[in-house]
Structure formats: C-alpha cells, structure tokens
Amino acid sequence: MAVTGESFYPIVQKISSQVAEKLGALVAETVERCLMDMLTRTVTYLPDGTAFVITGDIPAMWLRDSTAQLAPFLHLAHEDSGLADLIAAVSRRQLDYVLLDPYANAFNASGNGAGHKDVFPQSAWVWERKYEIDSLAYTIQLAYDLWATTRRTDHLQSFVDVAKVVIRTWRTEQDHERNSTYRFDRLDCPPSDTLTREGLGSITGPTGMTWAGFRPSDDACVYGYNIPGNAFAAVALKYIAELAVEVFGDHGLAQDAGRLREDIEQGIERFGLIEVDGQDPVYAYEVDGLGNSLFADDANVPSLLSLPMLGWCTAADPIYQATRSRVLSKANPYFYAGTAASGIGSPHTPPDHVWPIALAVQGLTSDDPTEKRDLLALLLATDGGTGLMHESFHVDDPTKFTRPWFSWANAMFCELALDVAGLRSYRRPAVRD
After folding, report:
1. Strand 61-62's sheet: what is its strand order?
2. Does the keyword Hydrolase apply (predicted)?
C-alpha cells in the first residue's frame, strides 16, 4: 500500500491528545493542523524511494528547511516506524543532493531546470546555488539525528562520501580568496541577492573558520565568516566523527573531522568574540578576519539566539547569555517591538516584522517556564486568524504577514508546544559545556 500523509494521522492524533491534556485544546488543534499540513501537502515520494519536501509556497526543497520541517517528528520516530522511514527517505535525498552539488542550497525533484537562472551555470537539478554553511550542516544533522533516536543506519549508505565532500568543501572555504572556485553573480536583483566583486564576495582573511557567501536567510553575508553558521559546522563535524567511529569504524574520517572542528572552534574564539562598551564579550554575527565585525541576529536558524538549540553551548553559558541579552534588544538592528509582539525579524522581510521561527527559538532556548508559555501563547495570538504560522508578521497588526504557507514556521511552533508540554524527548547535548 502506498504511503500517504493521511497514513500518519493516528500517531499525530496521539501526540495531539497528549498536548491537549497538558496545554489545552487550542494548542493541540494547532499542533495537529501544522503536523498534518506538513505530512499531507509538502512531501512527495520519489520512484527511487527517497522523499522530496517543499518549503510550502515555493516548489523547491531547501536542505535547511526540509531538516527543520521534520524536527517535531524526530521525537516520535522511535515509536513509529513509518515516520522513521519518512525521515530516512528525506535524509537519503539530501545526501544525494550534496553529492550532486555541495554549494547549492535548494533543489528540484527532477532535472527539470526550474528555479533561478544566474550568471554562472548550475545543474538542472538545482533550484538555487547560494552557498550557505548551514545547508551542509543541516544535512549532517538530520542523518545523525535519525541514527541517534532510532539507531537505524539504512539511510547512511552514502554518508562517508558525503562527509568527505563536506569536510573538503569547508576546508577549501577556509581560504576563500585563494582556494575557492565558487562564484555567485545574479543580475537585476537587490544587493542582498548577489555577491560583490563579480561573484567572489567581500574580501576576507583566513581565520580557521569556514567562509559562506550567504546567510540562512538566503541573503548575502556582509562579512564572510558567519559565526552561528560556523558554530553549527563545528557541531556537525562532531556528528561526523561520532558516526565515523560508531557506525563505520573509520577513524581517519573522524580525525579529519576533529581537526577541522578544532580549527573552526579556535577561529570563533579568536575572531568571533567582540566587546561592546567595555561589557562582557558577546558573539558577533559576522566577521571578515580583517578586523571588521557585525553585531546583529537574524530570525533564520542558525542564529546567535539558537546556539543552545543547535548543540553549540548550554543555555546557561555566560557568553551566550550576554549575547542573548543584546540579541533581544535594540542593540540588534532586526529586533522589533510593537503593540502585538516583540521579537527578531530579518532584512529578508519588511521592517517591523517579527518571525514566528525566532519566537519559537527564543522559547526553546529559555530556561524560564513562564517565558516559554508566554511565547507559545503569543504565537497562537499572532497567527492572523489562519490557524497556521507565517514567515513574519507586523508587530502592530498580525493580520499583515508574509508567506501564508511556510512549513518551517509551523514545525517550530510544534517544537515549542512539545517542549512546553514536556513531550520533546530528543535534545542535542552541547559541544561546549
């Protein structure tokens, strides 16, 4: 019998009932609606046994989004083999895409040539070729998370090859100026949609960290070393090393991953911390290795706010706490406050628009149960009457929102609801205690 989204209704109804007992009917109904929307409307099973996941209103599969969209289901995969099969099918598709092009961020379901057409050529399978560190890190994360929660390995046939590609790519981009052939040049677009210097990007100096052209918002980096992206890479390299030893017995691969992780961590320590007005050091958002830095935070993940959720540090880490305080204030140029909400937005959306993803991350990285519950209630109150989450909404009027169908935001609401209800069973340990 063919698998359909409706096949998963019993397990979704089960978790919805558990949420209802803890948090009430309104939260439970929204969780059920969001989970079933993802399962019934965004997933397509392909003839090769893999699964293709669209973001919602864009018919392409982002490596980042598709991982995040599956996050709530990881807590259920150990008790439902069908959900585990779905996650495995998506993971295999992601791994295949990385082997196809490690610099691409979004792909097509077939080699149909759909998507953006830029100056430099790309595969007909590629929807968009914006190079972002997190695209590779998320692919590693999903493969690892499924193994960590179920101990299944059937989705990992190409993992060693992919891990080597990821390490080689991140090594190359440690010195983008001298070693990289990657260029991105898009015509007739806003500056945030292309790279300067004929596609090379702003100038950088080696730091030990790995360079990226674009942020997880798909907007161009101001400076080439994105700190949350590099922290996420360090976490992913830990996962590579663990899988290399535990599943494949490949100690050489583990050592390669460990050496690169050490480079990146030392780079973050040396270049990624800044002091502002003589106060405690905080993480910068981006640096260039030449003395320039940017303090900000974007609603997309990886972000500075999300570092404990990613597994970089604990929520109690003093540098994280100092960073968090600045991120959730006017010191962050993308922090907005209004009569309906306050929180983090993005240059990717209009001013005074807060992202539900960022509100959910704020709750997931908080140690305060009251803050968590308040943020969950805020998300429910700012859905614009649609019963679903959106990309962003205006801080004074939630009926003004961007992207009516954005599956990543729906998934993040569910993650926070499961967390508040005490049903979020899988948590990533911190790389740095």
Report:
1. 61-62, 106-107, 126-128
2. yes
C-alpha angle 230/314/235, rounded to 5°?
30
State the amino acid at position 111 in one-letter form: G
Amino acid at 432: R
Strands 353-354 and 392-394: antiparallel
Q: Are 132 and 216 in contact (CB under 8 A)?
A: yes
Q: Which residues pair with 394 in a beta bridge?
A: 353, 397
Per-residue pLDDT tens for 196-236? 999 999 999 999 999 999 999 999 999 999 999 999 999 99
Q: Give whole-number Cα distances, 269 to 262, 283, 319, 324, in Å.
A: 11, 9, 11, 17
Token match 């299944």: residue? 152
Closest CA to 411 of 98, 161, 66, 84: 66
Which ranges in 349-425 belong to alpha helices (H)?
Answer: 356-364, 369-381, 407-420
Count CB-CB contacts under 10 A for residue 48. Answer: 10
Q: What is the C-alpha separation between 395 and 393, in angstroms, rounded?
A: 6
Structure confidence by residue, pLDDT tens digits, 148-182: 999 999 999 999 999 999 999 999 999 999 999 99
CATH code: domain 53-333 is 1.50.10.10
User: CA 214, CA 189: separation in Å to the nearest integer?
Assistant: 15
Q: How far apart are CA 306 and CA 365, in angstroms?
A: 7
